[in-house]
Amino acid sequence: MAIRDIRIIGDPVLRTPCAPITDPKSKAVRILVEDLLEGVDMDGRAGLAANQIGVSLRAFSWNIEGEVGYILNPVIADLDFSEYQDGDEGCLSVPELWFPTKRAWYARVTGIDLDGHEIVVEGEELMARALQHETDHLDGHLYLDRLSPKLRSKAMREVRKIMEPTKSSPSSSFFSK
């Protein structure tokens, strides 16, 4: 499999809620999962949602502390808001930028595997952050949406600076000054 290009902020696929997977045993879904697993199995990648590689289906992969996996049709089942984490968060679709993003300390998602069996994925700290971040992607949201209005405004200015139109950046046409 070839590693697919990452869609960058401004691409409409990132803002479109993803459709549920209706046939997890299909060849197309199996190829998607292979691509997600291959795409996340790289240094500096904690998660990869299907829409980040241009596929508007509910699936993501993760690579947290040496554990690589995937889930189809994930839904947040539980978030523990009794304790928060407020660390810097980044995103492959918002390159080069990191901002403090408040997330629940613990998260649990439910979904299915390629055989259609229900699975549960849960974790604290970085795993919880990844589960929330990737599920947000599938709902058409970026982590920037979770920032305070003042910080989000700053972040969007930074995004515009990084994505200024250049001859070598075709995706920059999504931004206006």
UniProtKB/TrEMBL annotation:
Cofactor(s) listed: Fe(2+)
Classification via Gene3D superfamilies: Peptide deformylase
Domain of life: Bacteria
Pfam families the record matches: Pep_deformylase
UniProt xrefs under InterPro entries: Peptide_deformylase, Peptide_deformylase_sf
Similarity section: Belongs to the polypeptide deformylase family.
Official protein name in the record: Peptide deformylase
